[in-house]
């Protein structure tokens, strides 16, 4: 006689009831943790800044470049005045009759001719250098143009200094003469000639001084860079 009995399953705990969680049987799959919520991406709003043509560090260089531009404009006036005064300094004196005349012409003196040519060349150079100086004002960080202007200014400065010094010697001789060489002063007769040539010499030395400032300013700007 066979009888079937219902099998009773009793749970087995590794620890006593009430002292902890029951240990899981080996091989049992661990319950999957709920997926973590994706982190919200930080939204960064791009700020639009106005475009700056100049940096704060370039303010000093820009001021020096603007001063260089103004000095070039200021030097053009004396150079033009020196060239015009020298070229229009001719004077003629009539002695006794109109057939006997004494003339004082600037082209009779190589020093005055040299001053005229040097002043005209320097004035033309200043006009041509103004666009380059304006570019340096807009872009003060450029060094190549500064160096180019520095070399050119030095050459023109040497030319003007030589011409002004030579003309100064002739003007001094025209005013004072030379007793040892028996050269009498001619400014007692040719007043207009001496006044114009003397003014041209003064104007040329004024332009020489401005060119010295230009050279020193350019050298200081390049050294600062």
Structure description:
The chain has 225 residues and is mainly alpha-helical. It is 56% helix and 6% strand. The chain is built from 4 helices and 2 strands, in the order H-E-E-H-H-H. It has a two-stranded antiparallel ribbon with strand order 1-2. Strand 1 and strand 2 form a beta hairpin. Helix 1 packs antiparallel against helix 2, helix 2 packs antiparallel against helix 3 and helix 3 packs antiparallel against helix 4. The protein is elongated and about 65 Å long.
Compact description:
This protein is mostly helical. It is built from four helices and two strands. Strand 1 and strand 2 form a beta hairpin.
Give the topology.
Blueprint: H1 59-87, E1 91-95, E2 97-104, H2 110-138, H3 144-176, H4 191-224
Antiparallel strand pairs: 1-2
Helix pairs in contact: 1-2, 1-4, 2-3, 3-4
Spatial sequence of strands, sheet with the most strands: 1-2
Helix proportion range = 55-70%
What string gives the helices and strands in order? HEEHHH
Structural class: mainly alpha
Low-pLDDT sequence parts = 1-5, 20-46, 48-54
- The percentage of residues in β strands lies in 5-15%
Q: Total helix count?
A: 4
Radius of gyration over alpha carbons? 46 Å
Mean pLDDT metric: 78
Say how many strands there are. 2
Main β-sheet description: 2 strands, antiparallel
Question: What overall form do the CA principal axes indicate?
Answer: elongated
What is the end-to-end distance?
115 Å
């Amino acid at each position: 006689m066979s009888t079937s009995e219902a099998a009773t399953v009793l749970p087995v705990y590794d620890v006593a009831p009430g002292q902890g969680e029951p240990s899981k049987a080996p091989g049992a799959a661990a319950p999957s943790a709920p997926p973590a919520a994706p982190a919200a991406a930080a939204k960064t709003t791009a700020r639009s800044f106005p475009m700056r043509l100049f940096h704060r560090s370039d303010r000093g260089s820009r001021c020096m470049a603007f001063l260089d531009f103004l000095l070039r404009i200021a030097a053009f006036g004396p150079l033009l005045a020196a060239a015009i005064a020298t070229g229009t300094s001719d004077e003629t004196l009539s002695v006794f009759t109109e057939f006997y005349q004494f003339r004082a012409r600037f082209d009779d003196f190589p020093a005055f001719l040299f001053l005229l040519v040097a002043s005209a060349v320097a004035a033309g150079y200043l006009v041509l250098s103004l666009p380059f100086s304006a570019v340096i004002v807009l872009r003060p960080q450029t060094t190549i143009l500064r160096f180019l202007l520095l070399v050119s200014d030095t050459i023109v400065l040497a030319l003007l200094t030589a011409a002004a010094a030579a003309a100064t010697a002739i003007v001094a001789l025209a005013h004072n003469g030379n007793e040892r060489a028996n050269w009498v002063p001619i400014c007692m007769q040719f007043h207009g000639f001496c006044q114009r040539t003397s003014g041209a010499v003064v104007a040329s030395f004024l332009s020489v001084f401005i060119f010295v400032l230009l050279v020193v300013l350019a050298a200081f700007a390049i050294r600062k860079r």
